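Protein modeling request. Please complete all fields; requests missing the sequence field cannot be processed.
Requester role: graduate student
Desired output: 3D structure, token encoding
Chains: 1
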Amino acid sequence: MPVTSVSERLLTLDHTIRQLENALNVARRRKKLSNYSLVFGPVLAVVLYALAWFPSIKQTVLLAVYIPTIPVAVGFGVASFWLKTHPGGPKPPEGGARPNEGQLELELARQRDTRKLLLAEADVPIKVRRLAYREDAYADIGQFRAESRSYRSVNNLLQGIVIIGALAATGASGLTAAFPNVRWITLGVTFAVGISSGFMGYFKYKERSFYLQQTADAMESESDAFQVGVGRYKRITDEEEALAEYVDEVHRLKAEQKKREQNLEQPPEARNAND
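Delivered output (275 residues):
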């Protein structure tokens, strides 16, 4: 098979893979929004319902709170219902149902396997393989940063619940003597703080976000150094040698990231033993 034909097919496959990756990200964002709406809507409704049982709150204050927040709670419910009944990625231009997340993952895996098979069966020079690997590195950088933002958002949310919940529980406990019903609110807030703290300690969202961002920054710095010929590439005059050095370094960074992820999945005793 001619190299030019293989290169054209690789470009076509790369374009298809980029489109599928974008559609998969859209499907995952829609799923995440539906889950957030499904949680925030009932929680806000319960809070509004609980406020009505406080005799110390005046009617005018309740109306001032209910008027803007009830539409928000209803909006969360409508958004959750719509997103749950219409999941998937972008709507196809020709019409029809949205492809769901599972279909997109399977199609993306099939296209990537097709790309690997094309590289394996064709007589592709090593330079073309390395160039394809370099293009994949840019996609990996975007994926690492997207995952890092996701973990950081979850960590910030849980950290906010811990901070606000701890302060709210302390304040509510001081009102328990005057308002006995407040003890149930204190119990619920304390329970939420405990759950959030446990999730942060077990799943280690902050550490995952930090390592992913660190790897993405290191890979981007390596790509910039390769493009402009600085750092380790300053004294390398041969382009193929510089490309080989770049691929080797990116492969090392990705391997280290996998080791960090495996280390975070282990229990603390195993991590201490490995250290």
